[in-house]
Specification:
By secondary structure, the chain is mainly alpha-helical. It is built from 5 helices and 3 strands; from the N terminus they run H-H-E-H-H-E-E-H. The protein has a 3-stranded antiparallel β-sheet. Helix 1 (2-17) packs antiparallel against helix 2, helix 2 (26-39) packs across helix 4 and helix 3 crosses helix 4. The longest helix is centred in the first third of the chain and has 16 residues, at 2-17.
Length: 107
């Protein structure tokens, strides 16, 4: 979890230090948020994920669908509110992320 939180903090720090520049990568921000949610035993709503990635909603929705198509994320109806869709990281996405974090930790 330490590396995940560091990655989220680094992304926010870059954005705050370079005002006016878009240094964030929305797809990456989504993956990091999905991993953090999975490790906390939760899922994110599509609207929450769109807000977290600092991109226009149409771009964010397109990226969520790309993550799903590539097998990194899955979308499931919210059990308590059928109007909402939840997004979670797949097992494949988590394995890829673990591999990345292992390599990052060795640097």
């Amino acid at each position: 979890m330490r590396l995940i939180l560091q990655e989220q903090q680094a992304s926010r720090l870059r954005s705050s230090c370079f005002a006016g520049l878009k240094l964030r990568n929305p797809a990456w921000d989504m993956l990091v948020a999905l991993l953090a949610a999975k490790r906390n035993g939760s899922q994110l709503s599509m609207s929450d994920l769109c807000l977290m990635c600092d991109a226009p909603e149409s771009t964010a929705l397109r990226l969520i669908h790309q993550l799903r198509e590539k097998g990194y994320a899955e979308m499931v109806p919210d059990r308590s509110d059928r109007r909402r869709t939840r997004v979670s990281l797949t097992s494949m996405g988590e394995m890829e992320f673990d591999s990345y974090l292992d390599k990052l930790d060795q640097v």
